[in-house]
Design brief:
two-stranded antiparallel sheet; Inosine-uridine Nucleoside N-ribohydrolase, Chain A; alpha/beta; single chain; nine-stranded mixed beta sheet; 11 strands
């Protein structure tokens, strides 16, 4: 089976960490590069977290540090959810590997332009780096297959009543990406909030291997819902599930853009499901997920990890 070549742009983050594990051990994916962006916590912490995770997973994947702040807005993080360093609940060894000596948009450009096959960008943080990449090096668009991103919502937000965190923390960057004419796949909060890991799933992960044990330790410090309240949100993991098992998602094509100027609606994703504006669809929008199949896919992946 031919693997999908991907670059992951991420802000680890507990749910980012499990998404990275799933990507690194998926038989369907080949991770060419990990790019970091300020989001869940600041850029220094997310970059160190990415290095620690790659080393913990035993993978030789280059890591490049990206943007430490949004294009225009003041920096905001979600350390109240993920802990001060983003990896609450588990102590990693200090990594021996180093980041690449270039900004992540330079590293992404190099990977994309030298790849023999088109690259899929998987973005699980704010879209700052991706906007900078597309604006600085528009020639990369010709060798990008699509951008699969966790962000936005067809319903309410978690940053504000209107807006989801990844989009709202850098709405100007999101607008650039939505208008880039690169094919998009949107896994919004309306779907990722359903992708909960229940008690049974978490217990199976815990006994599967050392990575499952690590996540079990993290979950007790993660404030993205709880097992007692019905399950743990794994928003970012949905992007990797989509690439592995697209059939478990219900989707539609729609025009998507982002509001950048509203006093109460900045960061709101306008998803024109009914084609009110008559504009050409620019995204595959996920509407629902088979949660039982999502959990089964993850359990199978962890039980078959070669680690």
């Amino acid at each position: 089976m031919r693997k999908i070549s991907i670059i992951i742009d991420t802000d680890p983050g507990i749910d980012d960490a499990i998404a990275l594990a799933a990507a690194c051990f998926s038989e369907a994916l080949e991770v060419k590069l990990i790019s970091t962006v300020s989001g869940n916590v600041g850029i220094e912490n997310v970059t160190q977290n990415a290095l620690k995770l790659v080393e913990f997973y035993g993978k030789e994947i280059p890591v490049a540090k990206g943007s430490g702040k949004p294009l225009i807005k003041a920096i905001e993080t979600a350390s109240n959810i993920h802990g001060e360093n983003g990896m609450g609940g588990y102590t990693f060894k200090e990594p021996t590997r180093k980041i690449l000596d270039k900004h992540s948009i330079e590293a992404m450009k190099d990977v994309i332009l030298t790849s023999k096959e088109k690259i899929t960008l998987v973005t699980i943080g704010p879209l700052t780096n991706i906007a900078l990449l597309l604006e600085t090096y528009p020639e990369v668009k010709n060798n990008i297959e699509r951008i699969v991103f966790m962000g936005g919502s067809t319903e309410r937000g978690n940053y504000s009543p209107a807006a989801e965190f990844n989009i709202a923390t850098d709405p100007e960057a999101a607008k650039i990406v939505f208008n880039s004419k690169v094919d998009l796949v949107m896994l919004g909060l309306n779907v990722t909030s359903k992708a909960l890991l229940d008690v049974e799933t978490v217990e199976k992960l815990r006994v599967s291997n050392k990575i499952g044990e690590m996540f079990y330790s993290m979950f007790s410090h993660y404030r993205g819902a709880s097992l007692e309240e019905g399950g743990i949100h794994m928003h970012d993991l949905s992007t990797i599930a989509y690439l592995n098992k697209p059939e478990i998602f219900k989707t539609t094509r729609a025009f998507v853009d982002v509001e950048t100027k509203g006093e109460y609606t900045s960061g709101f994703t306008v998803v024109d499901l009914d084609n009110v504006y008559g504009k050409e669809p620019n995204a595959t929008v996920c509407l629902d997920v088979d949660v039982l199949m999502f959990r089964k896919w993850l359990i199978d992946l962890f039980e078959n990890m070669n680690i």
